[in-house]
Amino acid sequence: MAFMLGCEKVRVDFPTKQVFKDLSLGVDEGARIGIVGRNGDGKSTLLTLLSGALEPDEGRVVRTRSVTVGVLGQGDDLRDDETVHHAVVGDAPEYEWASNVRTRSILSGLISDIDWEAKVGTLSGGQRRRVDLARLLVGDWDVLMLDEPTNHLDMRAITWLANHLKGRWRPGMGALLVVTHDRWFLDEVCLQMWEVHDGVVEPFEGGFSAYIMQRVERDRLAALAEEKRQNQLRRELAWLSRGARARATKPKFHVKAARELIADVPELRNELELKRMAMARLGKQCVDVNNVTVRFDGSEDVPGKTVLKDVTWMIGPGDRFGLIGENGAGKTTLLRVIQGLQPLRAGNVKIGKTVRFAVLSQHLDNLKDCHPDERVRQVTSRFTRRTMLDGREMTPAQLLESLGFTNADMNERVHDLSGGQKRRLALMMILLEEPNVLILDEPGNDLDVDMLAQVESLLDGWPGTLVLVTHDRYLMERVTDHQYALIDGTLRHLPGGVDEYLRIVAERDWRKERQGEAKSFIKMVDSKTGAGGSVDPFDGDILAELGFAPLEGGEAGGEGAEQAKPKLSGGQIRSLRKLMESNDRKMETLRGKIAAKEQEMTQVDPSDYVALTAVQDQIRELQEKLDELEMEWLEAAEQLGE
Prior knowledge:
22 helices; 44% helix; alpha/beta; 6-stranded mixed beta sheet
């Protein structure tokens, strides 16, 4: 594989700390690298260094002369006064970018809902982020460097981005470096991982799951080496003191496969015990949402909109529910409904008498009461009570320690904390208020993967009702027991989880696309025949003049709406049913093969990253075939009207 870019013996110093010392690494053609590490350890600095935007204090950054690099930072350089059109494609003529298949796919996948001629300054933060991402992706780059690309994207957009990046280059071509806390995304797109810590970058082969297994094995070996060293020291000490001979014990724990690493690990949560404790705090009733409709009245410039339609949602003591939906689908409105804060057009909300809500908002509203110069230690001193978590009492200081705060952090001013530290401090404050219904709106923002794991472990032992809103697929499936989706104003339970949601949304969009094509066709016919004209819009001569093939079964006269849909012959119906039955059998076989490969993966030595990667690739190929068969099945069912 050809070398593309890298650095040699680089040192980077900031006024208060040394970020890298004597760092050497390289990016080869075909690399798909995920970068992880604690907040503040230098992940973003590494990207700016390799992109050439940051000069090292020592050493050099090298790049093959012809290599082009595209960078997505956490901020953007878009001008408020330019249009979305100009921000994405610049002054390129329409025939140039509209004829490019990849460009059309990017515009459809990221910004199809944004007005093409809107000013950038009028966009929301999420829309602005998607425009900046589209601007970058339409370019032709050899290397893409993405810093938190999934921020402000909903699950559908994140899934689209993962698929785009997987298919953007041919295997062995191009290179991708991505910094993100989205662990599902890392597993989908990355073939290697770089862990940034203590001024060094440590490489791992495979995606995020393989990285975790290798890191567990690395830590086990380090613990074993430390145990041997301690035993040696004890023997030396015994010899020096002429006491009894030291008896070194043999290590009792040895990992032969990934399964043995977790064989004696208990379940993440004891659901029955948590529900019992929740009922003791809440009683039998929590929140009942009954046939609720919410509509926002419009104005002269903005039309009215019904956000929620006949929504019914029963939330009981100890339930752990996840809420999924596109940006603007009404998730925040539904959260306000649950708390009894939202005016209703119809329906009612019953809230139990003992319910105590606590909300961790995206904007960390509960930190607004803190003075910017106030120290973390002063904030914790306001809370004198202890809280019960995971079966034990915890003081505010112990709770903060479990969320990654050190003694040095306790003396930091709230104003100087990083985004991740502020989010963890806000979470501690609401937990110490001892609520029994906890609402978390994007709690994973600004947190690194290690800190996300600590927050997840903390929530595992929290004995109350949890409602989580997040676009982080891994966090959603890890922390909640059941998922619900807001789709076009209605609430749907998702027994199949996030995958089921993505299928539902894909089918809905497919139908909308077909309806849009039909409306465009009718407009073209009207423009040719004249609105209200007597000419049959399914006349073969008119269709030919418009550039369309005649529709099968579309004779003049007929029965109106029935004529608009082509009729299938008996042979076509049999062929479609045969295809569906064949695909059913093939899909069942593929699911069995995927399950077998997943089982095989648990038997592979976790340190054998080559074997792990090979099995991962086989599973990915099987899943892609399964997706293709499912799409064929859906298209056949659509044609049959089933």
